[in-house]
Every structure is written in C-alpha cells, then in structure tokens.
UniProtKB/TrEMBL annotation:
Transmembrane portions of the chain: 20-40, 89-114, 120-140, 152-181, 187-210, 222-246, 266-287, 294-312, 324-347, 354-372, 378-398
Protein name per UniProt: Chromate efflux transporter
Main location: membrane
Source organism per UniProt: Sphingomonas mollis
Short name of one Pfam family: Chromate_transp
Signal peptide range in chain numbering: none
Keywords (A to Z) from UniProt: Cell membrane, Membrane, Transmembrane, Transmembrane helix
Length: 403
C-alpha cells in the first residue's frame, strides 16, 4: 500500500502576510535567478507544499520560454495561487521592492558622489572590464541552450551582422521568429526573409531624420524611459542579460549616458538582492532621477506581472503550440546575435580610455576564466570586487570617471 500524496495548497495568508513573506524572499534574493528559484522551490514547494513539484517544474519550463525574469514571474504566479490576482500583485511587489529601493539608493550615491570623481576612474574601469567578461560568459551560456541547430546558428550570426550595421533590432527579431517557424514551408520563409531585407534597406533611407534625431540625443522623458524598460521586459528571452541591448539602445544610443556608466549599473545589479534586470532602475535614476528610475522599472517589470495575471489559467497550456515554440526559438537565437553585437560595442567603448591594453586584456581573461569555471551566487560580487581592486592598484587607463 502506497503512502497518500500530501495535500498541496498554500496556507491561508492575508495580503499583508503574503507581502511580508515575499518581501523576505526579495531581501534574500542574492546570486541570480538560479539561486532565487532554488530558494522559492525549497520554501514553497518542498517545505510548505504550495504546489506539487511536477507542476512547479512545468511552470518553470513555461516561464523560461516566455520573456521576463522567471524568478519574479514565479513569485507573481505563486501569489495568485495563494490569494488570487491581488495576491499575485502583492507577491510580485514584495519580491522586487528590496532590490528597487537598494538600486535607487545606489543610483543616488553614484550620481552624488561617484560620477565625475577622477580618483575613482581606475576603479570603475576595472569593474567595467570585469562586467564585460561576465556578459561574455552569460552570452555563451544562454547561447548553448538556445542554438540547437544550424539554422538557429545562422540566424544568430545574421542578427549579429544586422545589428552591427545599424539595422533596427525589431527587424531581425521578427524575421528570425517567422523564418524559423516557417522553415518547413521554404517558399514562405524565403518571402519573409526577402521582406525583412527590403525593410532593413528602406527604413534607414525613409527615416533619416528620425535616425539622426535619436543619434543626436532626444530629450529625456518619463514616457521614453517607460518604453525602454518595456522593450527589455518584453524581449528578455533566456535570461536578464538579454535585456541589455534594448535598454542600451534607448538610453546610451540617445546620448543620455555613457557605456561606462551603463556597465557600472550592470555591476551594481549583480551584487544586489534582485533580478539582474534591476540595472534598468539605475539607468533610469542616472538619466531621470527618482521618477525616471520608477518609470523604466515599471516598464521592465510590467510584462512579468502581466503574463501571470492575464494568462494564469492557461499559462501552462498557452505555449503548447509547436509553431509558437519555433517562433520563440527563432527570436531567442536572434537575441543572441544582438547581445553579441552589443558586447562588441560595449567592449569598443570600454577600451577607448585604456592605456595599458595588455593589463586590461589580462584582467578580462582572468575574469572570464573565473566566470567560466566557478559557480555560485558569490561569483559575480567577488569578480566585481576583484575588478575594482585591480583598477585601484594598476593604472589601466586615462583619468576618466564612469559617467
């Protein structure tokens, strides 16, 4: 006679208690999504048995296919399991609040005391070089899961080239999704590819004034920051690092801040208890103050709330359509190419002030090797600290602050 399967349901919690529970999770959310998901699994699945392990695994698989920080989306979904959609909002806000407040404080410290401080220029440059290594490792790690066949590899390379030559990112994303979804219908796939090439050639010619205005620097607005965050939130496939190109394009690309400051924000996000996409809060604070930080954060996290709140009853079945799987796989491959192009652009900007290239390359190689071989939530904070120490001890470049 087999033992009965224990009942799986969350305890009855008021909204205040639910908020405090997920606020605690948020305050302990160090180490990136793997550590965050493991914490949620251990507490709510293995110990308190809110849902059974098999359902948790299916849910996690679905959320990894959809865009957005999966740990935060898990919190929203589990909050709905506990107290309906109001519970989902409360749980999601509780989980993100510690990181949001800490990053806003970090943004204030950066703007007030760090940016423009010549004495800290070397330290910041060392950190930026290490962050490039962390991005490179993340790019390879994500690519290993996404690039499953030759066509996806070709899509990634084509997306890399298209991004480097200035094609708007939405063109390779859309083309990649449709081409891979229609691969078994070669004529339709070829038609989509031809249309994408035509659009890529026509857009720069048809909209030169718009492209010049963006390059020259449009005024900072709360709406523009919200849209920048929303793009990142909607297109974050395979990990938070995939949000980097879109936020960078709409902020650094408009001249609102430098690549160096952008990398400083990614470094700070890696050591705070929060999803890594909280780097957007830093970017928003630097260019638009507290209101800018809140605007870009709202855009970044809105999809993470919306997918669970809108699709809760169908979330596990909505991605069962094979055509949708193939479309998302094609988009994800294109994202890898866009990340690679963004990495190249960030590396070029970071290398500009370097006067000791051999030392900078050695630091990058050491950080990349460490990021490749070491595992654990402590790795990124230690690497960032090591980069800061190297930049302090060794003159890497000209006296230039991160901003």
């Amino acid at each position: 006679m087999t033992d009965p399967i224990p009942d799986t349901r969350p305890p009855h919690l008021g909204l205040g208690a639910l908020f405090l529970k997920f606020l605690t999770f948020g305050a302990l959310a160090f180490g990136g999504p793997v550590a965050q998901i493991a914490m949620l699994r251990q507490s709510l699945v293995e110990r308190e048995r809110w849902i059974d392990p098999a359902r948790f695994n299916r849910l996690l698989a679905v959320l990894q296919i959809l865009p957005g920080p999966e740990a935060h989306e898990l919190c929203v979904h589990l909050g709905i399991v506990a107290r309906g959609r109001r519970g989902g909002v409360v749980a999601g806000l509780g989980f993100m609040l510690p990181g949001l407040l800490l990053m806003m404080a970090a943004g204030w410290l950066y703007v007030t005391w760090i940016a423009g401080n010549i004495e800290l220029a070397g330290i910041l440059l060392g950190v930026q070089i290490v962050v490039l290594a962390i991005i490179a490792r993340a790019m390879v790690r994500i690519g290993q899961h996404v690039i499953e066949d030759r066509l996806l590899a070709v899509i990634a390379v084509a997306s890399l080239i298209a991004t480097l030559v200035g094609v708007p990112v939405w063109i390779p994303l859309a083309a990649a999704g449709f081409v891979y979804a229609l691969v078994h219908r070669p004529a339709m796939a070829a038609l989509v590819l031809l249309a994408a090439i035509v659009v890529a050639l026509v857009v720069p010619v048809a909209l030169p004034a718009a492209r010049t205005a963006v390059a020259a620097g449009a005024p900072v607005t709360l709406a523009a920051l919200f849209v920048a965050g929303l793009k990142g939130g909607l297109l974050t496939f395979g990990g938070a690092y995939t949000a980097i190109p879109y936020v960078r394009a709409d902020t650094v690309g408009r001249g609102w801040l430098s690549d160096a400051t952008f990398l400083d924000g990614i470094a700070l996000a890696g050591v705070l208890p929060a999803p890594l996409v909280i780097f957007a809060t830093f970017v928003g604070y630097v260019v638009g103050g507290p209101a800018g930080a809140l605007s870009i954060t709202a855009g970044m996290f809105l999809p993470a709330f919306a997918f669970s709140l809108i699709l809760f009853e169908r979330l596990e079945s909505v991605v069962e359509n094979p055509a949708l799987h193939r479309f998302l796989a094609g988009v994800a491959a294109a994202v890898i190419g866009i990340i690679a192009a963004t990495f190249a652009q960030l590396a070029r900007a970071t290398g500009a002030p370097v006067t000791q290239p051999a030392i900078a390359i050695a630091l990058f190689a050491i950080a990349l090797t460490a990021a490749w071989r070491l595992k654990g939530g402590w790795v990124i904070p230690v690497l960032v600290a090591g980069g800061a120490m190297a930049g302090w001890l060794v003159p890497l470049g000209i006296n230039r602050a991160g901003g």
